[in-house]
Design goal:
Shape: elongated
Structural class: mainly alpha
Oligomer: single chain
Order of helices and strands: HH
Number of helices: 2
Strand content: under 5%
Distance between the termini: 45 Å
C-alpha cells in the first residue's frame, strides 16, 4: 500500500531561487549582442541574406554596429567569466 503524502502548505513552503536577478540580467546582456552579431555576421557572410542589414540601417551602418556589438559582447562575456571564476 502506498503512503499518501500531504500537499505542501503554501504558507510554509519556500521557493528556491535558482538564479539571481543579476545573473539573469548578465545573461541577457550577453545574449542580445550575440544575436545582433549573429544576424549581422550572417548578412556579411552570405549574399543571399544581405537583406538582414536593413535591421541595422543598411550595409555601411551594419558594419559599424557589428564592430561595436563585438566590443559590448566581449566586455559582458568577460564579466560573466569573472563571475563564474569566483564560484
Amino acid at each position: 500500500m502506498n503512503a499518501v503524502s500531504n500537499p505542501p502548505n503554501p504558507s510554509t513552503s519556500r521557493l528556491i531561487e535558482r538564479f539571481t536577478f543579476g545573473e539573469r540580467l548578465l545573461h541577457w546582456l550577453v545574449a542580445v549582442p550575440f544575436i545582433g552579431l549573429l544576424l549581422s555576421g550572417l548578412a556579411f557572410s552570405y549574399p543571399s541574406v544581405f537583406w538582414l542589414t536593413f535591421l541595422f540601417g543598411g550595409g555601411a551602418n551594419a558594419r559599424r554596429v557589428h564592430d561595436w556589438l563585438g566590443l559590448v559582447f566581449v566586455f559582458f562575456v568577460l564579466l560573466l567569466a569573472f563571475r563564474w571564476a569566483r564560484e
